[in-house]
Each structure stands twice: as structure tokens, then as C-alpha cells.
Write a structure and sequence with these properties.
The protein is mainly alpha-helical. It is built from six helices and two strands. Helices cover 62% and strands 7% of the residues. β1 and β2 form a beta hairpin. α1 (10-33) crosses α5, α2 (37-46) packs across α4 (65-77) and α3 crosses α4. Keywords: DNA-binding, Transcription, Transcription regulation.
């Protein structure tokens, strides 16, 4: 029988890594604007010039539909996103940042990039490239093959 040692268990390390990164970035947008993580992710996807449907945001973000729906509702209430009919598909709506939403994005984006720079500052450029490569390799695997 194999012994599972928490400190050697990869999922445990990813949880610690996630918590550290998430805490660093969340502190910025929560403190300045009271944003929830799913709201900020939605704003980043829409970016300064993006225009997407809710389903496209779900796909791009890997968030679930409920989180995206909550983000859209909250951001609309703050008048940070606008929506219009999607001419290509009469059932969906195209979403984009309003001028007020762009101002929030423009304020936060450089701060978030600075947080990223500080988080990665312990690595060389080569190590950052390798970290990104390894993370992409893991993310691109079919999760079904992990089921026991």
C-alpha cells in the first residue's frame, strides 16, 4: 500500500500556489473596487476592446455559467458593461465594457501586471518560460484520463 504524504502530494502544492497567487491579485481589485474574482475575470476578457457573448466568456474563462451570469448582472448594475443584441444570433447579447468599465480596467490592469511581475520575480526569464510551458501542458490534458 502506498502512503500518501500531504507535503509531497502535487494537488496540495497546486492549492498552496493557487491560494498565494489568488490572494495577491484579489487584494488589488477587491480593495480598490470591491470586485469579486469572477467579475474581474469577466472584465479582463472583455478588456478595453472586447465584445463577447456570455457563452464566449464562459469558454474563454473556464468559469461556469452561473459565475459568468452573476458577473454580468453585477457589472451591469455598476454600469461597467453594456450589452446589445447579437445580430448573428438573435438569442444572445454582445457584451463590452462601458467607458466607466474601461476606466476601471485601465486603472487595474497595470497594477495586476505589477503583481504578476512581483510574483514571478523569484524566477529567471527561462524559468518563467518553463513554468508557463509546464502549466500549459498540464492544462491541455484531458481531465477524464485522471479519473480512477
Amino acid at each position: 500500500m502506498s502512503l500518501l504524504v500531504l507535503e509531497d502530494f502535487f494537488p496540495f502544492h497546486t492549492r498552496i500556489f493557487y491560494r498565494q497567487v489568488s490572494s495577491a491579485v484579489t487584494r488589488v481589485y477587491e480593495t480598490r473596487y470591491g470586485l469579486k474574482p469572477y467579475e474581474w475575470r469577466t472584465m479582463v476578457i472583455l478588456g478595453p476592446d472586447g465584445e463577447f457573448t456570455a457563452n464566449e466568456i464562459v469558454t474563454k474563462s473556464s468559469m461556469d455559467k452561473v459565475s459568468v451570469s452573476r458577473a454580468i448582472t453585477a457589472l451591469k448594475a455598476r454600469k461597467w458593461i453594456l450589452s446589445k443584441a447579437n445580430k448573428a444570433d438573435g438569442r444572445s447579447r454582445l457584451l463590452r465594457l462601458s467607458s466607466a468599465g474601461k476606466a476601471v480596467y485601465d486603472d487595474l490592469a497595470p497594477l495586476m501586471l505589477e503583481v504578476e511581475r512581483k510574483l514571478l520575480s523569484v524566477y529567471s526569464e527561462e524559468e518563467v518560460a518553463e513554468l508557463r510551458r509546464l502549466m500549459a501542458k498540464l492544462a491541455n490534458q484531458d481531465s477524464a484520463k485522471f479519473i480512477v
